[in-house]
Amino acid sequence: MTDLKKLIAQAQGKSANDFWLATGRRPTDVIVELVQHLEKLALESAALKIAVDGFNQELYGKGFEVLGWHLNGATEPLDSWFEDNDWNPETPATDAVLAEVEARGVERFAKEYLRETAKEHGAEGNEGMALRFNIFANMAEGFAAHLRNPPYRAKELREVQG
Question: Counting runs of H as helices and runs of E as strands, what totals does the chain give?
Answer without folding.
Answer: 8, 2
